[in-house]
Design goal:
15 helices; homodimer; Rossmann fold; alpha/beta
Chain lengths: 442, 442
């Protein structure tokens, strides 16, 4: 399936001169990065590049075809791809099963099998690979900002869920590997995509939005064998939701309890909301496997420390108890008002240096596995250089930060995330994600 | 207590020439808006204004004194305020009970009683009134952006919780009335503040962060009588959290189950997280009381519609079933692919006009009470003018929007919130807030 993501040559069937057309946007997104051929019956040139009336007129080998033409012409295009020995096709066109056109979908499926073609779609956004810049998303950059390269891959049965989330996360510091919107999944299903991403070197963690799974047992068997975290959010959890899923993708959503049971058996992490899915994914993307589960909370705001400890307790997570050596050392080196406990309250007059001291002592303490650090940048004596303090902490223990605030806070949080320290806005959302992250290592 | 928020004259005791000093920041925040007197023994002039060696040297009547000097000098300053007939004092200075200085706190309390002075603090940020611009917060604007004026008031036992949340919400479209950080609550407790905000005309909804309540029964009695929503987040819900609260504000956190029971009896809404508190508050601030609870979901993304319906079902909220007249009308006026159900899926080629049609039909339908509208701005045929479509919907029914995305989305969401349409980023957080908002009207 590698040719879907790093093809040496691409044909865009339906490439168009008209700026608002799907075929134009796709061609424009690709032709400067990849060897890309425009295919269009009615024009000779697009963006200064020659246009071909058919793929059959292209003399070179084509690794990937992207089809963006009305449904009624898709079969003919696929046939020509088959005859021209193109083995990978993304079909973004809609107008198949999802509008009741079962017959056309069946014919398409037969044709793909006949020519032994692997195909994503139809009725989908296709593929975005943040590393190779392969991009079949037909939404312009100003509508949908592309996220930066990283380790999270996302398979979405719903194009809208995919594009909205991609656009949101592009503005945050979340790194993507591959995004795949597979639409009707006529030829390649969620199961094959999951299997592929399980082996993909750039993918550290797999996120999925699914309404239904076609081959349940196979899907779960493959999930079980994949040695990476898989996080799923399921659409159609309730009766009304399942009914809506039926009209949306024709998915038989099935009983959510049965899905949940199967997910758990396959070590699949169940996200209860879209934002939770990416909170959990962020921890896996940025952090190494923790050596243990004892968490030390450090804070510069008493109330935030308490809310964090509350959330840890309510989620049955384990509080670290620092060694007496660390305790004695800190007692000697920090002002009397600092509360050396769990939470450790560095209090409102905390400086960058005091944070550094606390972080480094905890990072070395053998009784502590994870540092959960509240930094409220509103307090007067800390500043942007605190990111350097975090960067210099040694010991390889996971550090997770909680910071709430406006422009200054968001800027500092971005810097921290760029050095692989995940930052959350609120104690409770951080702890919920940590809970599911740690449960995975059970 | 009105003089804490709209005093005619203010004395800042400890006003300073030095830019980083607490007394300088407070004086600077006030002197252009209020008749403000600087009090400082060691200087003659601050920011071009005359400085007085003591409040007793000020010839005019002072409504409010703000004390920002070291703890050991606070008693003397309070004494002088008493002798000068100043009846309202905010003491931001720390160094009292919270560091074990019980004796000084006791003396302070006695002195305040002797002169019949009402006092907020010590060990607090004091007050911010977004309507009058009264501002004793000693954090400069670049550390803590002040939110715009609106209907949410927030009482916080923790200064850090208060300032972090204020800074965050300033960047969003949340309107504040009064923020009060009351610190040790030596003279005025959470109970009196609650009672005052219950009567305050600018306050539509009251949020509170509390670790402990001093006079439990009185607090609950007053809460019961207040005819406005009160939303509380409690610090110290777990044993470890309660222990931390003891070190933080000396609060006896008490059993959370007992608090929860009492809160429920008093019609207090319990928030499970800081962000949830402000999500719920936003609904109360921006919306009128709904006439009923039947919710119609409208969407342009199938998956988002399903996740929203799922969340409503899991929270036992009621789905509307539109009238047959509306159904027939829509069937006649929208493309065949639109799914006229609950959710109503306007599908990916939706235009502003189609949204307008769906919104207006639902706004008039007698079987529908609340419109919950997913708008994913990534789809190609809608644009920023969609805010006008929303503005023109008549019928007075609550409209709540869910939009996920980057810069463009955030910009449109801000416009919608400015016309009192609350916007959420994800289906699940919207529905959790709606659940608690509707439960209040039971």
């Amino acid at each position: 399936m590698q040719d879907f993501f790093t093809p040496k040559s691409i044909a865009v069937i339906g490439a168009s001169k008209e700026e608002n057309k799907v075929g134009h946007i796709i061609f424009k997104n690709l032709y400067k990065t990849f060897k890309t051929f425009a295919v269009n019956l009615n024009t000779k040139e697009i963006l200064g590049e020659k246009a071909y009336p058919s793929v059959k007129k292209i003399k070179e080998k084509i690794d990937l075809a992207i089809i963006a033409i009305p449904a009624e012409f898709v079969l003919q295009a696929v046939q020509q791809c088959g005859e021209h020995d193109i083995k990978h096709i993304i079909i973004v066109s809609s107008g198949f099963k999802e509008i009741g056109n079962e017959r056309l979908e069946y014919e398409l499926s037969k044709l793909l099998t006949k020519y032994n073609i692997k195909s994503i779609g139809p009725n989908c956004l296709g593929v975005f690979d943040a590393h190779s810049a392969l991009d079949s998303l037909f939404l312009p950059q100003e509508k949908l900002t592309r996220p930066k390269a990283g380790g999270i891959s996302f398979i979405s049965q719903s194009g809208a869920v995919g594009s909205a989330v991609l656009d949101l996360l592009a503005g945050e510091n979340v790194g993507f590997a591959k995004f795949i919107s597979y639409g009707n999944g006529t030829n390649i299903s969620e199961t094959e995509l999951l299997e592929y991403l399980g082996k993909d070197k750039q993918t550290k963690v797999i996120c999925m939005y699914i309404e239904g799974v076609k081959e349940g047992k196979k899907f779960m068997d493959i999930a079980k064998k994949i040695n990476k975290p898989i996080i799923v959010i399921k659409g159609g959890k309730t009766e009304q939701g399942a009914k809506a899923a039926m009209s949306h993708t024709g998915s038989l959503a099935g009983s959510y309890d049965i899905y949940k049971g199967a997910f758990k058996q396959s070590k699949i992490i169940i996200a209860d909301s879209l934002d939770e899915m990416f909170h959990i994914a962020k921890l896996f993307e940025k952090l190494q496997t923790p050596k243990g589960k004892r968490i030390q909370v450090i804070t510069n705001g008493g109330g935030y420390g308490i809310l964090t400890i509350d959330a840890l307790g309510l989620n049955n997570l384990q509080l670290a108890q620092m060694s007496s050596t660390s305790h004695a050392f800190l007692k000697h080196h920090v002002p009397k008002l600092v509360i050396i406990s769990n939470p450790m309250d560095l209090v409102g007059d905390v400086t960058n240096e005091r944070y550094g001291l606390a972080l480094n002592i905890c990072a070395k303490d053998k009784n502590i596995d994870i540092l959960l650090v509240v930094v409220l940048h509103q307090t007067p004596l800390i500043n942007k250089q605190i990111t350097e303090v975090f960067r210099k902490v040694q010991g390889g223990k996971p550090i997770i930060v909680i910071s709430t605030g406006g422009t200054t806070t968001k800027e500092i949080s971005a810097t921290l995330e760029n050095i692989n320290i995940p930052v959350f806005e609120f104690p409770e959302e951080a702890v919920h994600a940590i809970k599911k992250w740690l449960d995975y290592y059970n």
